[in-house]
Amino acid sequence: SQELEQSPQSLIVQEGKNLTINCTSSKTLYGLYWYKQKYGEGLIFLMMLQKGGEEKSHEKITAKLDEKKQQSSLHITASQPSHAGIYLCGATDDNYGQNFVFGPGTRLSVLP
Amino acid sequence: GAVVSQHPSWVICKSGTSVKIECRSLDFQATTMFWYRQFPKQSLMLMATSNEGSKATYEQGVEKDKFLINHASLTLSTLTVTSAHPEDSSFYICAPWRGGTDTQYFGPGTRLTVL
Questions:
Q1: CA A67 from centre of chain
Q2: What gap in Å lies between CA B102 and CA A109, rounded to an integer?
Q3: Burial class (CB in 10 A: 0-12, 13-18, 19+), A85
Q4: Cβ–Cβ of A100/B34 closer than 8 Å?
Q5: pLDDT, tens digit, 9 for 90 and up, residues A44-95
Q6: Residues B88, B29: Cα–Cα separation, whole Å
Q7: Which is nearest to A67 in space by CA: A78, A82, A54?
């Protein structure tokens, strides 16, 4: 079965700094999703990537999927305290778009 | 890591019947349970949030009378799809939240197909 790894496990940055979170899959990704979660709350959908080489942006967050579709990165530019939380990548391991699996999450703290 | 089980892992039922999905956190107590559903090639959609011993809070557009959630204990939550119809066919995932930590766990999911 597919497994997702995320790095780093946790990250503490100063406000205004850029940062990158990586998600690596053991198999080809058919759909890669990025979520943010605040403590005790449900997942907030950020972006979905499907095509190799695809890149999407939303406000100060950019996500990319590599050409081989086995790795994705999430980049935050000029981080703010509001960016703090847990970032999870999720993926489907078949072309039908189901059998969802998640990475272990990256805990981001942004110091003011 | 913590173990979360969902039962059944897949189910096929006739239209009009009710289906109960169980989610168990096997080695920790889940003070909060999130239920998600996923349509093919789409993101997870949060359906509801429940706290042990309290009524579930449903997201906008999710019918509480159709998707009954019971969080009777800290290790068991159930989602019952009542009078299921083909449009309820989906992948349902439970996500127990371990109180006192910032760790989110996920069940393996239940694939429901309504004929």
A1: 16
A2: 12
A3: buried
A4: no
A5: 989 999 888 999 998 899 999 998 889 999 999 999 999 999 999 998 766 6
A6: 29
A7: A54
Cβ atoms of B33 and B74 within 8 Å: the answer is no
Interchain proximity A97–B41, CB inside 8 Å: yes
Among B52, A26, A110, B19, CA closest to B6: B19
* Matching residue, tokens 């159930």: B78
Q: Report which of residues B100 and B94 the model is more confident about.
A: B94
Nearest to B69 by CA among B61, B83, B60, B80: B80
- Nearest CA among B88, B82, B86, B87 for reference residue B70: B82
Question: Phi-psi region for residue A97, left (φ > 0), alpha (ψ -120 to 50) or beta?
Answer: left
Which residues from chain B sit within 8 angstroms of residue A34, using beta carbons? none
* Site of tokens 């009777």: B72
Hey, how many other C-beta atoms are within 10 angstroms of the C-beta on B89?
18
Contact: B91, A37; criterion CB under 8 Å: no
Nearest C-alpha neighbor of B77 from the set B113, B111, B53, B108: B53
Question: What count of CB pairs under 8 Å joins A to B?
Answer: 53
Residue B95 pLDDT exceeds 80: yes
